Amino acid sequence: MKTAVLSDIHANLEALVACMAHARRQGTERFVFLGDLVGYGADPLACLDLIRAELSRGSLAVRGNHDEAALGGLCEDLNFIARDAAYWTRSQLGAAERELLEQLPLQCRDGAALYVHASAADPGQWEYITGTESAQRCLTASDAPIVFAGHVHQPLLFYTAGEAIKTFAAGAGVAVPLSSRRRWLVLAGSVGQPRDGNPAAAYQLFDETECNVTCHRVAYDHATAARKILAAGLPAMLARRLAYGE
Amino acid sequence: MDFAGHRVEDKLAEGAMATLWKVRAADGSLHLLKRPKLGMGSHPACFAGFETERMILERLGDPHVPAFVAGGDESEDEGGPWLIEELVAGTSLAEVAGRAPLPLDEFTRLGTAIATALHALHRQNVVHHDLKPQHILFREDGSAVLIDFGLAVHGELPDFAGDAVASDHHPLGTPAYIAPELLRGERGNPRSDIFSLGVILYLLATGRLPFGAPESLTGMRRRLWLDPPRPRALRPELPEWLQEIVMRCLAVLPQNRYATAAQVAHDLSHTQQVVITARGRDLKGGGWRAAARRWWKTVTAASPGRQRAADLLARAPHVLVAIDTEHVDAALADAMREAVRRAASADFLARISCVTVLDASLFAGQDDAGEIERSLRTQRLMALHLWARELELSPERLRFHVLDGSDDAGPLLDHAREHHADHIIIGARGSSALRRLLGSVSARVAAEAPCSVSVIRPR
Q1: For the segment B325-360, what is each residue's pLDDT rounded down to a tens digit?
Q2: CA distances to B117, B222, B385 from A193, in Å
Q3: What pLDDT digit, counting tens, does each position of B106-156 carry?
Q4: What is the rounded radius of gyration, in angstroms, for the C-alpha atoms of chain B?
């Protein structure tokens, strides 16, 4: 079975639609939405509609820090731009959208894989996995052989080699076998706001039957997504960065 | 225990890392079963090597490596992981090497076969990193088969064997054959295999190993500075071309070796075309004289002299790359990028324009035609950028254009004329019935272009 893992969508409808269509062409049967479904982008309602429809067909979703911020609170841990975007998103959400976000779990175990937005080590603390130490903490906190996480907006693989943790940056479209004698942490990259210098949307295709994972990069109409952000009155920086993936 | 329907027959060998059995499939054919040594006391590299070999063999499709048959990943309680591959029934180079020095015709025949097999491996993005006579077999038709990929590295996949090197700081490889840069932990350079190929050729020609079989790291490091005895010093009857080829494979710096094993194979099969230098002639290594000569060459190098605009222009061509962003064929895209990369590196001032064609008339009349066109244009432009990323060229050398038009060839030809293109690189189209009916874009571009056209096909 093939699962497309889509993380950090950030209410970018153009990117979400492009990635879902790409994943369907690869034969994906279901989606896992890895949190930060909203925040930053101008299409929270349309994105949540699409996601809700997939959830009713057996797809999974977990909660991200921006989903939590959209529900309430002072958002003091967010920077000014993220906070502005969170307040704007909050003003857009209706009861149905709030209910959907409120129901999202912090993490979700499915077979060999654990899906979590930030880190399996205390998921509600939204720790960024920025190196082998934080990757080690994440893997230690779970007994799942394979952990999928987002939050850092950059795709990367971590794997165990004896006592050590190694990293591997797989090329786009390359299926990397996930051998059962290692543990794997897959950072999914971001659908709606890539920050690795490549503006193409990123998602992971997890083939459970063949036990491999492929990072795909998808070109989408970022100019429309940016135009909508400006039209909504959201901070201009959120529109600009889509063109550079930074 | 079932191995994909194979019955275990004889144990063939038991090494430190793995055990090998002969197995018989239901249809009676014989294969090789390999199982790594796991559990208490086994070296962590045992599994890394097994995992690497399985991962790489599964991806290779080539008569120069054993065919992958099946693999299993059972837990240790259930017997552990295993791998079944083709049982290559052939002569090992290790047996042949026992007869070295070989006659010249046999030397060139075997050398060409090995280099050809090595190039086939490199073309599949794999570096062997443990090339030695024990890992080379010959089929009945004379072609070489490379075996044992436990230390190999695939350009697109994690380097599990390299992880093991990094963790215990001991270079992985066979001391007599290991390339100098591997002693510094540099992995993944196909020229490291060319060095090992040089050691093998040296052995076949002289009956001796150029650096002996050192047991210590210090002993291995001698090859970083020590020149091996010249083959013609050991056997004066050897021709200069032979020494030229062998010593070029054995250069200390990778960039001074042959760039590809295919070039080695070509030289070995066209020995009269080998250009003989001091490397092939001299019976002794360079020493201080060579260093002095290099210094002298540098300080006395001729000035470039008078320059002409045309010379400069010839080195700065405009290369137009026609890209079909809508029918993405990964193999074709790779072959095209390879062609662009070659053009870009051959002429370091070359400018590369990536272009595609968008037919806006398809949406004419629709309410939101302008919106659709704008969106598609952005998407195509972004797809061009995505396509060009892997070229890894500096941005100032690249340009991107989405051209308008209802057919593909017309706008491309207009753009080429307008912008003084010197070279068009275009992909060959598939041979579907539809393509035949519509005619081929590349054929029309090739026929009508104002400049050279390269029609690219995937290898």
Answers
A1: 888 788 999 999 999 999 998 887 788 999 999 988
A2: 45, 52, 17
A3: 999 999 999 999 989 998 889 999 999 999 999 999 999 999 999 999 988
A4: 27
Secondary structure of residue A207 in the 3-state scheme: strand
Under an 8 A CB cutoff, do A179 and B51 touch?
yes
Looking up tokens 């035949």 gives B436
**C-alpha separations of B338 from A17, A145, B194, B344 in Å:** 32, 38, 22, 10
Q: Are A178 and A205 in contact (CB under 8 A)?
A: no
- Inter-residue contact B423 to B451 (CB < 8 Å): yes
Statement: residue A160 has pLDDT above 60: yes
Give yes or no for B392 touching A (CB within 8 A). no
The helix/strand/coil state of B257 is: coil
- Residue A161 pairs with which residues in a beta bridge? A164
Q: In chain B, what is the greatest distance between 2 CA atoms, to the nearest angstrom?
A: 85
- Three-state SS for A171? coil
Phi, psi dihedral angles at A81 (to 5 degrees): -65, -45
DSSP labels for B79-110? Answer: T-EEEEEE---SEEHHHHHTTPSPPHHHHHHH
Please tell me which of the candidates B51, B163, B325 has its beta carbon nearest to residue A166: B163
Residue A186 near residue A157 (C-beta atoms within 8 A): yes
On the question of pLDDT at B68 being above 60, the answer is yes
- Partner residues linked to A212 by β-bridges: A177, A207
Interface contact flag, A161 B55, Cβ < 8 Å: no
Residue reference for tokens 């002693």: B183
Percent of chain B with pLDDT over 70: 89
Q: Which residue has the tokens 């294969």?
A: B31
Contact of B156 with chain A, judged by CB distance below 8 Å, is answered with yes
Longest dimension (CA), chain A: 52
B48 interface with A at CB cutoff 8 Å: yes
Q: Kindly list the structural domains of chain B, giving each domain's residue range(s) and its CATH number in brackets, ordered by start.
A: 7-86 (3.30.200.20), 91-294 (1.10.510.10), 309-456 (3.40.50.620)
Q: Other CB atoms closer than 10 Å to residue B278's CB: what's the count?
A: 11
CB-based contact B73 A200, cutoff 8 Å: no
> Is B163 in contact with A168 (Cβ distance < 8 A)?
no
CATH class for the region spanning A2-244: alpha beta
Instruction: Tokens for A160, please give them.
Output: 């165990």
Residue B416 tokens, joined? 């080429």
Res B301: pLDDT? 46
Q: Distance (Å, rounded) from C-alpha B104 to C-alpha B230?
A: 17
pLDDT digits (tens, 9 = 90+) for B396-446: 788 898 999 888 889 999 988 887 788 999 998 765 555 555 568 888 999
* Coil vs helix vs strand at A63: coil
Beta bridge partners of B83: B34, B71
Q: What pTM was estimated for this model as a whole?
A: 0.83
